[in-house]
Amino acid sequence: MINRLIFLLLLSSVADAQTVVAPSNASDVMVSERARQIHESAIVIDTHADTTQRFLDENFDLGSTDPNDAGHISLDKARRGNLGAEFFSIWVDPTTHQGHFAQYTLDLIDSVYEQAARHPDRMMMAVSVADVERAHREHKLAALMGIEGGHSIENDIRLLRDYYRLGVRYMTLTWSNTNEWADSSGDIDDPKVQHHNGLTDFGRQVVLEMNRLGMIVDISHVSDKTFWDAIVITKAPVIASHSSARALTNAPRNMTDDMLRAVAKNGGVVQVNFFSGFDDENYRKAEEAQSKDMAAAIAQYVEQMRAAGKTATAEDRDRIEREWLAKLPRPPFSSLIDHIDHIAKVAGVDHVGLGSDFDGVSGQTPEGMNSAADLPKITQALLDRGYGAEAIRKILGGNTLRVLGEVERVSREMQAK
Ligand SMILES: [Zn+2]
Fold it and tell me: N or C, where is the chain less crowded by C-beta within 10 Å?
C-alpha cells in the first residue's frame, strides 16, 4: 500500500486495490529461453500484494481468468510468472476502520483462507519454509500473510500472538500512520500527530515478541528513527517488505544507503517496491507536483456528494486518483531494475528481493510490468546486466526464504531459553 500525500491532506486514505487499468506498451522486454529456464528453476517469492483488499471489497476470486481484469494477481497470472509464494497484505485502513482494527484484520485473514479453500488444486496456505518448499514441489501458489501496520494489534501483545497462530508471518511495524508505539514516515512531519521518537518501550517489547514467536519484523513505512531502533533491538533478521532505494528516488519511505548496509549487517532483505513513485525520481516529482490539485479534486467530489446527501466511497476516491495518475508518463522498466541493482551493489546480492506492492499502487508500475505474469522480465533484465543464475535465484526468492528460515531458528532458540 503506497504512502499517499492525500492521506495526510485529507486524513482519509484511499483503498487502492481496485481494478487496475494498465496500458500495454511497445518497448517490452523479450524473455529468452535461458532467462525462462532460470526463472522456472527459482522459488519466486513476492513479499507484498494488496490483492487481499479485492477479496473483500470486490468479491474478487483468484481463479478469475477474465481478460478484462487488469489486476496484478490471479492464479493464472501467478502461474505464467512462476510466482511461487505471495505474502498477502493484511492492511486495515486506520481511518475507516477506527475502533475495530482487530475485526477487520480477522476478516482479511479469513478472506485469504477462503481463497485457498476454493482452489486447493492450485494454492495452499503456508506458514513456514517447509510449506513454501512443499507448495513449490506441488506446483501450487503458497499463500502467506503479512500484517501491514502495527495498529492491527490494538496495543495488545496477546492479539499479536493470536495473529501468529492464525498464520501471519510478518508485521510491518507501521503503515503510513504513526500508532501508539511506533513512528511512521508517512506522518512524521505532521505536528498534529503525537510522535515517540521512534519505538516506545512497548514497541521494543513487540519487536522482541515477534522474534520469539517467529514473525518477521518488517520495517517498510516506518520513520528513520523507528528503523534504527528496530534494527538495534531485533534478535532476528528484518525485512523491508516493499521499499526501494532513496539514493535513486527520494521518497521518505525508501531506504537510505546507510539503512541498506545496516539491513545487510543484520542478515535481512530489502524487497524492492514496483510502484513508479518509489522507483523513478521524475515520476515521483511529477506526482508530488500535482498531489495538492489531486487532493483538492477528491475533496471537492466528497463535498459534492455530501451536499447531495450521499457518501463518497473508497472506490470513488480511487477512481479519481487513478484518473490523475494516469496522466503521468510511465517510467521505463529499467527504473525497477536500477533499484534491485543499486541495493545489490550497496547491501550485497544476498540482501535484495521482490516486494511488488501489486494491486496496491493504483496501477502505477513501470512499463512492461503489468502483472505477476511479467515477473520473468526481471530475470531477463538481471541476466542482461551480468547477474548469474544463482544470484538471480537469490533475488527472486532465495534471500527471502533464508530470512524466514533464520527467523524460525531464532524463535526456536528464544523459546528454548
Ligand atoms: Zn505499503
Answer: C
